[in-house]
Design a protein that fits this description.
With about 120 residues, the protein is mainly alpha-helical. Helix content is about 60%, strand content about 0%.
Length: about 120
């Protein structure tokens, strides 16, 4: 979702029982490193299709269109909403890689783990 200022991206995973959280973190970081190196043409085509579908679903009623127009006007201007399909279509593999290197760099990360207590070991409160 576009915003006027940079915002928080969340990348998450759920570990299966017995999977060390460190290995899950390592796998996520490897995936991010791969994106920083660039994505494939097939991945870009899929992402563009998903974004176009989201725009269609976000505009499936008069109420949703009004919401979208108001939302885009608050973060930039309504032109961002009306030009979104063309802007999505124009995105290149090189632009995705450059944006990923800028946004996904290690200095921008906060990593946290949520590890629930085993059943029966927690407080009753």
């Amino acid at each position: 979702m576009p915003t006027e200022d940079p915002f928080l991206y969340t990348v998450s995973a759920t570990a299966t029982e017995g999977t060390p959280l460190a290995s899950v973190e390592e796998a996520l970081l490897e995936s991010l490193a791969g994106v920083e190196q660039g994505i494939t043409d097939a991945e870009l085509i899929k992402a563009k299709a998903q974004l176009r579908a989201r725009l269609v679903f976000d505009s499936d009623s008069v109420t949703n269109i009004a919401h979208q127009l108001g939302y885009y006007e608050t973060i930039a201007n309504v032109d961002l909403f009306t030009t979104a399909p063309a802007r999505i279509a124009a995105v290149t593999l090189e632009e995705v890689a450059a944006a990923a290197r800028e946004v996904l760099m290690p200095a921008n990360r906060t990593i946290g783990w949520f590890e629930p207590l085993p059943v029966g070991s927690g407080s009753s409160k």
